[in-house]
Design a protein that fits this description.
10 helices; 3-stranded antiparallel sheet; 7-stranded mixed sheet; alpha/beta; Rossmann fold
């Protein structure tokens, strides 16, 4: 009888082991757990910048075996959005993580691995997913919730780190994990900014030099909106002031400037607790989002 083939060692990128199937992923994680390691996880779509790397460093700071996924998820892009031109930079991404010593294993599945033929299950989250991004990208959180549910069950981490830059997404994931009783801690990571205040984003690479200069005004506008609201300005008037300021700064279209409850994203009539001001606006072909606690 031919003995069963021994599992092969995973591929690597920039010296970091890479799992490309769920089977390879689970084998590597099982070996880490057998050594007594906890598992930390950061899901990404690649095109990594310092913001992503800062999330991966949280795993290292907690002494965990750090897993980072790179998967450009097709189900969260509408047909008119930038799925095909979204940057794919696996080697560069791995190099950044290696230089930061922030990753023990990369998980880079193919679309066929994540959504095999016959795939027919989708996850929908209510509550914090309602309004804001959903008003303009109604498909988005369904795609996010489905892929994150899959990733969390595939990796089985002790904790997973999500950035506060995508604040509504962070609350949607927290709701998802709570409602489905998933045994994972969701850890928020602070927004990392450029020296001029622009929130780091993979989509910043799409901006022309002039657009990049304009983009920095979003953070300044949000700070002014927050200050006005805290001084007692009517919240709807403060939101309107923010929309007008973004247009004056050079944004072509503003989807929203909104002051919401920090825990639920419920609309507020007055500030009587932690709140968040959130914005989404367009520069050329690029849509930028940002938020600040107020």
């Amino acid at each position: 009888m031919t003995p069963p083939a021994k599992p092969t060692a995973p591929q690597s990128l920039a010296g970091i082991p890479v799992a490309r199937t769920v089977g390879e992923l689970r084998r590597e994680i099982a070996q880490a757990r057998a050594k007594g390691r906890k598992i930390g996880f950061v899901p990404t779509m690649g095109a990594l910048h310092e913001g992503h790397v800062s999330l991966a460093r949280i795993s290292r700071a907690r002494g965990a075996f750090g897993v980072v996924s790179i998967f450009v998820n097709p189900t969260q892009f509408a047909p008119t959005e930038d799925f095909n031109r979204y940057p794919r930079t696996e080697e560069a991404d791995a190099t950044k993580l290696r230089m930061a010593e922030a990753c023990d294993l990369l998980f880079i599945p193919s679309p066929a691995e994540m959504y095999p033929k016959g795939f027919a299950t989708h996850v929908a989250v209510g509550g914090p997913s309602e309004g804001l991004e959903t008003d303009f990208r109604p498909h988005f959180f369904g795609g996010v919730a489905t892929v994150v549910t899959k990733l969390l069950t595939q990796v089985g981490p002790d904790f997973a780190v999500f950035g506060e830059k995508d604040y509504q997404q962070l609350l949607v994931i927290k709701r998802l994990v709570a409602d489905l009783n998933l045994p994972v801690e969701i850890v928020p990571g602070f927004t990392v900014r450029e020296p001029d205040g622009l929130a780091m984003s993979s989509r910043n690479a799409y901006l022309s030099a002039d657009e990049r200069a304009t983009a920095a005004s979003m953070n300044r506008v949000l700070m002014e909106v927050g200050k006005a609201a805290r001084r007692g300005m009517d919240l709807r008037a403060a939101e309107k002031m923010g929309e007008e300021a973004l247009i004056e700064a050079g944004f072509q279209k503003v989807d929203y400037v909104a002051i919401r409850d920090a825990a639920t994203l419920a609309t507020l009539t007055k500030l009587d607790g932690p709140a968040r001001v959130l914005a989404a606006a367009h520069l050329g072909k690029t849509r930028l989002i940002d938020n600040l606690g107020i």
